[in-house]
Amino acid sequence: MLLPIHPGHPPANRIKRVVSALSDGKIVIYPTDTVYGMGCSMMNKKAIGRIYQLKGLKKSHPVSFICSDLSHISEYAEISNYAFRILRRLLPGPYTFVLPGSRKAPRLMLTRRKTVGIRIPECLVAVRIVEGLGHPIVSTSVIDRNGRVMDDPREIERLYRNDVAVVIDSGLSGIVSSSVVDLTTNEPVVLREGKGDVSLFE
Fold first, then answer.
1. How far apart are alpha carbons 19 and 100 in whole angstroms?
2. Domain 2-194, what fold?
3. CA-CA distance, 44 to 59, in Å (whole number)?
4. Residue among 99, 118, 98, 115 at smallest CA distance from 107
5. pLDDT band at residue 61 using 50, 70 and 90 as cut-offs
6. Of the candidates 47, 64, 141, 146, the residue with the CA atom closest to the CA atom of residue 98
7. CB within 8 A of 31, min separation 6: which ones?
8. How sure is the predictor about 91, in pLDDT bands with cuts at 50, 70 and 90?
9. For a Cys staple, 192 with which of 25, 113, 124, 180, CB 3.0–4.6 Å?
10. DSSP states along the chain
11. Domain-wise residue ranges, the chain
């Protein structure tokens, strides 16, 4: 189902429809400040497994998740003082930060190093969804059968209509993913240069 939601003024009743689908264990596609994301409740193991199938990911491939604010992040990750300063400066924004996972982080979301990838996008729709659900949602980019990022929600809906419950239409997205920065050591390490400015870490 294609569900139009204005990116700057998301109607509460439409956000509730998305949250209801997530609560029922469904997969949804939603906007972020970079590319469209495919996600589900972080607490639903079956739905996460389905996302891995849809994208052809190996179980060892990490996926990130979206939190609503910094205090939300602290529930699922251990944040050092220097990491907190970076997060406070750059979030919300087009970054994925790798942090040590906390005890509350679901085992399925942890890498072999016991780390997690966390985002707070500068996107009101995504944040409202997480707030409504009450816990994070999985975040992985939406790609076509050839592995290319998809930016048009109408094309996304045509491709994934039988696989997901909702495709949110908030207009065309960008095609550049978030920058990924590892904050698990004493100094930041850029793992992927994307939309977020990484010159700050040089």
1. 28
2. DHBP synthase (3.90.870)
3. 15
4. 115
5. confident
6. 64
7. 5, 7, 37, 123, 125, 126, 153, 168, 170, 171, 173
8. very high
9. 180
10. -EEE--SSS--HHHHHHHHHHHHTT--EEE--SSS-EEE-BTT-HHHHHHHHHHHT--TTS--EEE-SSHHHHHHHB---HHHHHHHHHH-SSSEEEEEEB-TTS-GGG--TTSEEEEE--S-HHHHHHHHHHSS-EEEEE-B-TTSPBP--HHHHHHHHTTT-SEEEE-S---S---EEEE-SSSS-EEEE--SS--GGG-
11. 2-194
Q: Which residue has the tokens 């891995």?
A: 52
Dihedral of CA 32/34/38/43: which sign?
negative
Q: Which residue has the tokens 């809906």?
A: 157
- Count CA atoms within 13 Å of residue 86 on its CB side: 25
State how far the alpha carbon of 90 is from the alpha carbons of 56, 84, 86, 121, in Å: 31, 10, 6, 10
pLDDT level of residue 111 (50, 70, 90 thresholds) = confident
Residue 29: which pLDDT band, with cuts at 50, 70 and 90? very high
Distances in whole angstroms, Cα of residue 171 to Cα of each of 6, 59, 158, 166? 8, 32, 15, 15
Averaged pLDDT score across all residues of the chain = 95
Q: For residues 40 and 47, what is the distance between their CA atoms, to the nearest angstrom?
A: 6
Q: Which amino acid is at 114?
A: K
pLDDT at 60: 80
